[in-house]
Amino acid sequence: MDRRAVCAAVLLLAAVCILAACAEKMQANKSSERKDSVEDGDNVQARIRVTLQDEDGSALSGGELRAEKGEGEQNWIADESGILEIYGWEENKVMEIRLFNASGMELGEAALQLLTSLVTDAAVLEDNHIRICAAEGAGYVEVIFRPDGTGGILCRLKLDGDWEQ
What we know:
alpha+beta, 4-stranded antiparallel beta sheet, 42% strand
């Protein structure tokens, strides 16, 4: 081998080593970001699509869900189809959810618990509480809230892992 070939081989080997080190560092950073996100309580996969309806099953546009989150309160307002989406649902946390119509009248109360984004079990419990048990890797949970006329809430859950945003 001549001297230029040896230099070229050494430079090529050095470039490959540098690229491998960069790729390893990028992978470590991604893993660290994912870990930090989970430690902060955010499950970036977890999302809930909620449809608000009136007693007759018509879309409740402008309806609102309010939940206490940490020190403050978080509000989600439904679009003209009565749909709102909640992202970053905290794993293993129960949020007390209050449901309001567009004029601000409270329609009832429910609680949701989302463990991860794949639902494997769901049940409506006493006092209008909703239990959603989940396992890793699915797309979404769709919940339809509708007042039952007595201050309680009728609830239909759609469990589907193939939802596209």
